[in-house]
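CORE FACILITY INTAKE
Project code: CF-77B
Contact: R.S. (postdoc)
Sample description: multi-component assembly, two entities in total
Requested service: structural model of the whole complex
Turnaround: standard
Below are the sequence entries exactly as provided by the requester. Do not edit them.
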Amino acid sequence: MAIIEIRNLTFTYAGSDEPAIRDISLNIEEGEFVLIMGRSGCGKTTLCRCLNGLIPHFYRGEMKGDVIINGLNTRKHTVAEIAQIVGMVFQEPENQLVTMSVEKELAFGPENLGIPPDEIRERVERVIKLMNLENIRDRAPYELSGGEQQKVAIASVLTLEPKILVLDEPTSSLDPASATKILEIIANLNRLYGITVVLIEHRPELVMRYVTKIIIMDKGRIIMEGNPREVFSHGTFEELGIEAPVPVRLFHMLRKRGLGKMNIVPITEDEATRLILGLVG
Amino acid sequence: MIEVVDVWYRYPEGSVALRGVSLQIERGEFIAIMGENGAGKTTLIKHFNGLLKPQRGEVFVDGINTKESSIAELSKKVGVVFQNPDHQLFSSTVEEEIMFSLNNLNIDADEARRRMEWVLKLLDLERYRKRSPFSLSGGEKKRLALATILCMKPKVLVLDEPTMGQDFEQKMKLAELLQNLVRKGTTVVVVTHDVEFAAMYFPRVVLMARGRIIADGVPEDVLTNDEILRRASLIPPQATKIAWEVSRELEDFPRKIIRVKELYEAVISLVR
């Protein structure tokens, strides 16, 4: 059974004439690493808001179709219930942190849900260890660097022990070194702990090797869906506002030139290196 | 256009942000300043419009020593668009926001109107003219912050991290816009972490680390220098990394590659 099941989903924000997403149907299996790509305004963020119940519970508008998360229909369950299955991380870390210390930040979610104090303490310790936050556990979130804040934002949803993490451009306000660290953390949560990841990211080359499914959206619809190799064997999708990884772009330039025997599109730098060596070596 | 001569700057709380920085920027140059957080990039550009004055050394803008001029005077020549647009916007509509900038200039109402229409169109903001700046998306706010500076037609335009939160197309549009301004004689300085963006569009790249300039040159040299990149905590462009890997096996494969086009050409030339 799919952990995320979307059936004919259309959503129109109140006050808008056009739907932000149109007739989306999608299954995501447990443990998948899903990357959503597409230009700004294509509906990526709206789709993510449907995964944790913010739509239809917080955003006003008209929703058609259904979203079933781990067997729960989001129409029939509260945001608090869904938050225990789906953790959400946004672009700006500072807007997500609300307490005066990292430790309190991590306990905040479970406290709101009425989880027993002993259990909360255990979870907080577990996540502090897992995310390597020991040295900043007493610091105030606002004193931390952007990268550390984003790490704390991720940690603070992990104490709810979600099965799914949804991250909407989590690195776009970070410098490259911090962005790399955050993406590595996300990849590890998926690989080592089996957490299902849904990620919106403009610069996905660092995680491409872990991605099991790419979804390309345009004008509120899903245009393409499949594993990275399938999807990028069809092209670079520049016309959809996507910056395909350099190995993919190189492959299509070479293929256009008629350099034969190339059926498998390289996704990573290693694969591109082997492709080049195979051609000229 | 801008001359920075052995500038030192220490913040009141004690950290030394600039340690003897010298830099010459000619009229009409298009230049990227790169380096990790805390390298001194933002401190340096704050010296260009007089927001900060050097504690040691000198900064000249269009021949004027910034120590002998005011921020008001300098900001007519040097427009700075900072990273976070929320700190720059405060009016109740997009039009008013732009008009506020124009009101500081000595121009008549017709000219002000013309300039407002020009930047609204140039930055694709026409349909938002009556909207509150705070109702715009992050990317739109960044374009509006640029519009409020651009409408003053500064001789030098400085942008701090303009590509953050922008998608591929918006970055391309921004680069085209900046290249156009450069062609018409504006000097454009961009502070950026975005190594692919710098590799793609800039003829000159300056790298900073710990308050010093550690490299200054064409991107083909600066962005392919492993040791220098490491000191600045920068990751080379993807095309560079692939070229380096290939050259470990194939000695004559070029290593100074920064764009996918050059990688492609190198492969093609070896296949024949």
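Facility notes:
- The mean pLDDT of chain A is 91.
- The radius of gyration of chain A is 20 Å.
Invoice: internal transfer
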